[in-house]
Design brief:
Length: 316
């Protein structure tokens, strides 16, 4: 009996040491998601899961792909659906359970300080001034049909004006002032923005973006317009009907841990959503949050389709 008990105990120990039955966990994320090799290795070592990251474009494209594949999910977990697309994803049954807030940032316009200095032009003080003649052909925004910053700014205009007619008039004026519409934030920032060789010194981006534009001498290279911004929160969660929900849940919990949360400012230029996480010292100088935000009370999900139809009518 003693020998049998020892064999049973040994078998139990061996079973406890085995990895998860389904060892692969797939994460669907937008193209701006960054997780270092060290953090991936840490997650895999601590949990026994192997992580595969699928990049599905901007936030709108990510959301659309998850909706289109909801009957046969392409991933187990997601990262990057934000509060502008949250309602749509929830209505389509993408979430297995309530997602967790991972990071946030404020959608604001940024401008290239060196460009304005060299041209002798006074930079704008607000997005409301981007329709002025002196800023003709200087601004790039992103398409709200595919880009979460674009949709966030579309929401900002609806929050910032009293009537839809005022919103339409602003967008028409912006169009007539030769604004460029890029398909994604990456295209707008890294192709069109003058800091990266483009011809647009004003770009729709984030309050935190200037932290990446510090010159070699320690002076700021860009600045954000910090009034009337839209606070964007990004979520991660388990995808309903996925093949590895335990692995997805473990991954979401890992993204909430201090090690990952500390990485998000420098990796993705956003603020950690978990309270009490220290951010880099440079952020206190170059990446301060917005001084005012608008649009928090808008029902984006109820108005999205009409807003996008109206926007497309103006921009084609």
């Amino acid at each position: 009996m003693k020998k049998l008990a020892l064999l049973i105990a040994a078998a139990a120990m061996l079973t406890g040491c085995q990895g998860p039955e389904n060892s692969l966990v797939r994460l669907a994320a937008h193209d701006s998601f960054v997780m270092s090799d060290e953090l991936i290795a840490q997650f895999e070592s601590e949990t026994g899961y192997e992580l595969e990251i699928l990049r599905l474009g901007d936030t709108g494209s990510l959301t659309n792909q998850l909706i289109l594949t909801r009957n046969a999910p392409v991933a187990d977990a997601f990262f990057g659906i934000d509060n502008t697309f949250y309602g749509r994803a929830e209505a389509e049954g993408i979430f297995d359970s309530a997602p967790a807030a991972i990071d946030y940032s404020d959608v604001c316009f940024n401008y290239d300080m060196g460009w304005f200095d060299s041209e002798g032009i006074t930079p704008p003080r607000s997005w409301r001034e981007l329709t002025d003649e002196e800023y003709r052909g200087l601004t790039v925004v992103t398409n709200p049909n595919f880009s979460s910053p674009g949709l966030a700014f579309l929401a900002s205009t609806h929050a910032g004006f009293d009537t839809p007619a005022d919103v339409f008039a602003y967008w028409r004026d912006l169009r007539d002032n030769e604004v460029k519409v890029a398909g994604s934030w990456e295209d707008a920032y890294f192709s069109d923005f003058t800091r990266y060789g483009g011809d647009r010194p004003i770009v729709l981006s984030y309050a935190s973006s200037p932290s990446a534009e510090v010159n070699e001498d320690g002076t700021p290279g860009s600045r954000a317009l910090l009034e009337e911004c839209f606070r964007q929160t990004e979520f991660a969660g388990v995808i309903a009907g996925s093949t590895n929900q335990p692995g997805a849940s473990a991954l979401v919990q890992f993204l909430l841990r201090e090690d990952f949360q500390r990485s998000v400012p420098e990796a993705m230029f956003v603020y950690p959503a978990v309270p009490g996480i220290d951010v880099p010292e440079a952020w206190a100088r170059f990446a301060t949050p917005a001084t005012s935000t608008i649009g928090e009370t808008l029902d984006i999900d109820a108005n999205r389709e009409q807003w996008l139809t109206d926007w497309s009518d103006i921009f084609g």
